[in-house]
Design goal:
- The complex is a heterodimer of chains A (576) and B (271).
- Chain A is 21% helix and 39% strand.
- Chain A has eight helices and 32 strands.
- In chain A, the strands form eight sheets. In chain A, strands 23, 25, 26, 27, 28, 30 and 31 form a seven-stranded mixed beta sheet that branches.
- In chain A, helix 4 packs antiparallel against helix 5, helix 4 (463-478) packs antiparallel against helix 8 (557-575) and helix 5 packs antiparallel against helix 7 (532-550).
- The radius of gyration of chain A is 51 Å and the shape is elongated.
- The termini of chain A are far apart.
- Chain B has a five-stranded antiparallel beta sheet. Chain B has a two-stranded antiparallel ribbon with strand order 2-3.
- The longest helix of chain B is centred in the first third of the chain and has 51 residues, at 3-53.
- Chain B is extended, with a radius of gyration of 27 Å.
- The chains are: A alpha+beta (576), B alpha+beta (271).
């Protein structure tokens, strides 16, 4: 169908954001749909369609379009909605709010004329839908079956059902759609059925809105010739998009009558049976026995609360999570719910658990009903650990059968207790990103500070200490066995002259390890108050090293050891 | 010293004395207010414990919630709130408070036990998440809490730089292998911690973790009760909130299952 669009609105605000709302038809039948497009320039925006009250939105979509004209790029986003009218008459699509960031514009309202169309007699139709409920009078919590049926004599495709909102009900679809045939006024219809179980959550007159089915209907055409090409194989017919809607329904939901029984109401509305059983009537103190309570029937079984149990003193109880096996069938929910409670006697004796009573609202009798279990007797014997003390001997241990180790299983379920320490009141501050970065950078700052400090300290080092350290280092290196004779003598020479310089705190050319003459060395030592014999020894050693270095002496290991020992001795004397 | 100068000194001394007295009064008042607040919280806490032990769970909830509303952020307090709600039969709030506690004391054994127990009551089956590449590469992140990653990173970082400082002071050449090993470990932990901060910032802006509070809630296609019900979630189920609008949250239960719920139907784990 060629879509002829009527541009009925222009944007009110003339700003960067621009929006228009357009529809494809302004006059439609009650079963027809109208397509609404909201055109927004630029990027995506938020379109508020919650204000549309006269129509149901049965589908929605978005598309965008980019145009390039003379190097100008423009983009347009289209929000598409398919609307189904809810009533006849002059209906209005109100101004729609379109927002993007801080910008907001409104479209102008659009009026649509909706009229009643089509034959009213169902049997005249090739296709129609119906909906009904199993009860129009119900009480709160009672199950109601809602059924939607599609009758057709023609082929359809792409069927899509939009169920009513079921406001005021809890609704669950019953799995497995049914289909069959039905004859109405002599016409044979194919019937498809979808059902939901509804449970009213409130009392009063509850309305169930229409269910909407949209599908493509095949029309074969009325003219029938006998041409070869009219054969059904070639004649694929014409497909037309159609929408069908059921009549709205009303259910009168009465509140549950006042509950006057002394037994607490379990919350179950339906038909039920209640059983209670105990696993073992005679147990030892500290052992457990399981009390099982089973509620079975139809209705909201899953909502049933555990019946009250009055236990004599001397029992601890541990509840397990209730087990549910509730299935949803054609008549609603049915199944059973089981509560298991582990009972542990803490003292010896005979105990009686009084009858356990279960109260529910019986739908058949339309009144509250109580079912009671029999009373249970439990004998708690003394603990076996106390009475069966054994005297173990080595033989007994050797001859005993191997222990059959078993998995440890929960015998009861409960949560661990409160934390009662007052430190629960201290504020736990999460480590913020700023503090994290600060703590990460702190050691780096420490490292850099240490580097700067050392560099500063090196600059301010006393020249005498520097020279003395250099002398020690040179001597230490000279003691290394792997170095050559030349290196050895060079290092000894360096150790001795830096040692002599250190006595004077000299720096400058001496600090750099430059050569020193005998006379200069003697002068330095003499100026610093050294005795003549010490000066003589130092100069003597100086000459021996120089002679070995420059005069081609054969330096064997013995001479090497002697020179090293003498230099070490001399440096000790100089540094003292 | 002239008389004028003496006068000035006396005026200054008087002003100093006055200022000292005012500061002392202010400090005393602030301490008193703080002590009063602490005393009230302590009383509420002890009341909460007492009510809980007496099985008066609604009152225990009120007492603990009052402390939490006062701004105290503590995993143990949140754990106690979770316990009180669970005992009161409110699975949604119980799991919400346990999840909040798990953000602060993730390795607490009592919390893990009780949270696991509470999770057995959830009706909605979690749909399996596909393994992301990030999850495979950083599998160990699942084993360590965010706090552990942060402090491990900081301690390793401190050790690394102290090692370098030591080497610097002893004038030794830095050992290349040890330095590279240290630096790699520090890099992994520090970068992971930074990613956690980034993810938390993005998550708080776009993707909030939340828990369904009522026994059941309809997730709808739009922002009104008249919108189509898409699916139903039950108390305690964890969801992600990715948008907030007109009193509604757009939530995501699993891939492909998104919709709108009223804001009061979900509790945000970390707001």
């Amino acid at each position: 169908m060629a879509a002829v669009f009527f541009i009925l609105c222009i944007p009110v605000a003339a700003c960067a954001l621009d929006a228009q709302a357009v529809v494809d038809k302004s006059r439609i039948g009650l079963d027809d749909t109208v397509r609404l497009d909201v055109l927004v320039n630029g990027d995506e925006a938020d379109v508020d369609v919650s204000v549309i009250k006269d129509f149901n939105i049965i589908s929605r979509g978005t598309s965008s379009n980019v145009r390039i004209i003379n190097t100008q790029v423009s983009r347009e986003t289209t929000y598409q909605y398919v609307l189904l009218p809810l009533k006849e008459g002059q209906l209005t699509i109100p101004p729609l709010k379109v927002a993007r960031g801080k910008e907001t514009v409104y479209t102008r309202p659009i009026r649509i004329q909706v009229s009643q169309t089509g034959p009213r007699n169902l049997a005249e139709r090739d296709i129609f839908v119906q909906a009904f409920v199993s009860k129009i009078e119900a009480v709160e919590g009672e199950q109601i079956i809602y059924t939607f049926r599609l009758y057709r004599t023609v082929q359809i495709d792409s069927a899509r059902l939009q169920k009513p909102d079921f406001i005021g009900f809890s609704a669950t679809e019953i799995e497995g759609n049914r289909s069959g045939e039905s004859i109405i006024s002599g016409r044979r219809y194919a019937v498809a059925e979808v059902s939901y179980v509804l449970i009213p959550l409130q009392s009063g007159k509850l309305e169930i809105g229409p269910a909407v089915l949209s599908c493509d209907v095949r029309h074969l055409g009325l003219r029938r010739s006998h041409s070869f090409f009219d054969d059904s194989f070639f004649n694929r017919g014409r497909w037309e998009k159609k929408v069908f809607r059921t009549e709205p329904l009303t259910v009168n939901v009465a509140p549950l009558p006042p509950h006057s029984s002394e037994v607490t109401f379990s919350g179950l509305v339906g038909e039920a049976d209640f059983r209670a059983a105990i696993e073992d009537n005679e147990i030892a103190v500290g052992d457990s026995t399981t009390l099982t309570l089973t509620i079975e029937g139809s209705g909201n079984i899953m909502d049933a609360e555990e019946p009250e149990i009055t236990l004599p003193d001397g029992f601890k109880i541990y509840r397990d999570a209730p087990e549910e096996d509730v299935k949803l069938g054609n008549d609603g929910y049915a199944g059973h719910k089981t509560f298991r409670i582990a009972l542990v006697p803490v003292k010896e004796g005979d105990f009686t658990i009084p009858p356990i009573r279960f109260n529910y609202f019986d739908m058949a009798a339309k009144r509250y009903k109580t079912i009671a279990s029999p009373a249970f007797s439990i004998r708690a014997n003394p603990s076996q650990e106390k009475t069966q003390l054994e005297v173990f001997s080595a033989d007994a241990i050797q001859n005993r059968p191997p222990v059959d180790r078993q998995d440890v299983k929960f015998t009861g379920r409960d949560i661990l207790p409160l934390k009662e320490d007052l430190n629960a009141l201290s504020h736990q501050q999460a480590l913020s990103f700023g503090r994290f970065v600060f703590l990460a950078l702190l050691p780096i700052l420490l490292y850099l500070s240490a580097g700067w400090f050392l560099r500063f300290m090196r600059k301010t080092d006393d020249p005498a200490r520097v020279m003395s350290r250099k002398a020690r280092e040179a001597l230490k290196d000279a003691g290394h066995p792997d170095i050559s004779i030349e290196e050895f003598l060079s290092l000894l020479y360096k150790a001795l002259i830096t040692g002599i310089c250190a006595t004077a705190g000299a720096s400058g050319q001496f600090a750099k390890g430059a050569s020193l003459t005998h006379a200069e060395a003697e002068e330095i030592l003499r100026n610093n108050g050294w005795a003549d014999d010490s000066i003589q020894q130092a100069i003597e050693l100086f000459k021996r090293i120089e002679s070995a270095r420059y005069s081609g002496w054969r330096v064997d290991s013995e001479l090497r050891e002697t020179l090293l020992a003498d230099t070490r001795h001399m440096l000790r004397s100089l540094s003292s | 010293m002239t008389g004028r100068m003496m006068k000035r000194i006396i005026v200054m001394r008087t002003m100093l004395k006055k200022t000292a007295v005012i500061i002392l009064i202010l400090i005393t008042a602030a301490t008193a207010v703080s002590a009063a607040g602490t005393t009230e919280s302590t009383r509420d806490f002890l009341d909460g414990v007492k009510y809980y032990n007496e099985e008066n769970y609604p009152k225990a909830i009120d007492a603990f919630a009052k402390i939490a509303a006062g701004g105290i952020r503590n995993g143990k307090l949140y754990y106690n709130l979770g316990n009180a709600y669970l005992k009161n039969g409110d699975i949604g709030h119980a799991i919400l408070w346990y999840e909040r506690a798990a953000k602060l004391i993730p390795n607490d054994p009592d919390l893990k036990f009780n949270l696991n127990y509470a999770l057995t009551f959830i009706k909605d089956k979690r749909e399996e998440k596909k393994n992301s590449m990030f999850g495979v590469l950083f599998f160990w992140k699942e084993l360590l809490s965010q706090r552990t990653v942060q402090w491990t990173g900081l301690i390793l970082n401190m050790m690394f730089w102290l090692f370098l400082t030591g080497q610097l002071i002893r004038r030794r050449k830095q050992l290349k292998m040890v330095s590279v090993f240290f630096m790699t470990a520090v890099g992994i932990f520090i970068l992971t911690a930074c990613y956690d901060y980034y993810a938390a910032a993005v998550s708080s802006a776009r993707n909030k973790e939340a828990v369904i509070l009522p026994s059941s809630v309809s997730v709808r296609s739009g922002l009104s009760e008249a919108s189509t019900e898409l699916f139903v979630l039950h108390a305690g189920t964890k969801i992600r909130i990715d948008q907030e609008k007109n009193g509604y949250y757009r939530i995501c239960f699993s891939e492909g299952k998104i919709g709108w719920i009223p804001k009061d139907k979900a509790g945000v784990v970390e707001g």
